[in-house]
Amino acid sequence: xxxxxxxxxxxxxxxxxxxxxxxxxxxxxxxxxxxxxxxxxxxxxxxxxxxxxxxxxxxxxxxxxxxxxxxxxxxxxxxxxxxxxxxxxxxxxxxxxxxxxxxxxxxxxxxxxxxxxxxxxxxxxxxxxxxxxxxxxxxxxxxxxxxxxxxxxxxxxxxxxxxxxxxxxxxxxxxxxxxxxxxxxxxxxxxxxxxxxxxxxxxxxxxxxxxxxxxxxxxxxxxxxxxxxxxxxxxxxxxxxxxxxxxxxxxxxxxxxxxxxxxxxxxxxxxxxxxxxxxxxxxxxxxxxxxxxxxxxxxxxxxxxxxxxxxxxxxxxxxxxxxxxxxxxxxxxxxxxxxxxxxxxxxxxxxxxxxxxxxxxxxxxxxxxxxxxxxxxxxxxxxxxxxxxxxxxxxxxxxxxxxxxxxxxxxxxxxxxxxxxxxxxxxxxxxxxxxxxxxxxxxxxxxxxxxxxx
Length: 454
Fold this sequence. Notes:
By secondary structure, this protein is an alpha/beta fold. The protein contains 13 helices and 18 strands. Helix 6 (159-171) packs parallel to helix 8 (226-256) and helix 7 crosses helix 8.
């Protein structure tokens, strides 16, 4: 369904995400910069030097300028990246349940065993597989994303330290390997460690600023505290810089081992962050660009020249891209990232919000809805279960400030019909809200409380 951007075809053929099967198995590295939104990265036009290593990587790789996260929060997006399915297909998301007092609340479910992950595909294909994640909440064992990983290391430590441990695993491998890393430096609580040569501005170390911004903004969504938002944005940018430093450390290690050139390296974010835009703070609340437009850079084996893709792509296309380079079957998966077939829908979905938003009596109804975004050329249509639909022209209005629903009625109706048809086609019957669900077990709840989710 995406609009073809013909300007990239020749560039991709000359060194981007090639569709030619490799002569020998290639190693694969998938890096997720947790909570990093595209607009705060240098290669996407940001004014601060937050991502020097990612920006350098983009000069010798394929830059995807309009990558869309399948969801504005960690769990469903990682499942989509691992399975190639949208949230409405795999069903891992927020559901309503009743607690012991009978109050309706939100809980999240785990990935089903029968779903096949990219790690399982590669393991069956003879790869060594390992995950090193600083996200100890929604990547915890309960949620079952460890399927196919021979080694699954969870530890909330700075990204640079996690990268060191991951490189140690890579050095021990004697066959092609698949390494997944999740760096959490830009996720609450932001990693505010000072870095050389980035962010010369003074950054406040007050860990309460983010909570203050969230409370003030949600209570008064039309009156943003500009000074407070600026201070929190600096903290967030410092976190992004630390995540980028971890990426740089990982790349340096791969080069030192002389395996970088022959490695397929994919770097993206799982979602972004609201910093007061649309009356929101943090993520998992809505499908506006701040949380679903994410950085994505792909370096193919032996690629050294840049390429650029300007049409919308989805992180659900990551598995087929990886398997194609590994010489394994991509049957049943979405098209690869460099394939703009015009038939694959680009979507982002959000089911309700986190439990503290859903249950807070101060904003009844605002977070008790399901939102689905569909991308078509410059247009973004948002279907809302409460009837608050939206239509935005991202080329003219990238901040999504002007809802064109009433001004472009023909476009609105066409995209609404298209979105409803896709939802009808893809949604699995078992993934509907057919009754109340059970709460999360205690151990999982404690992990999520530590990360500020509960």
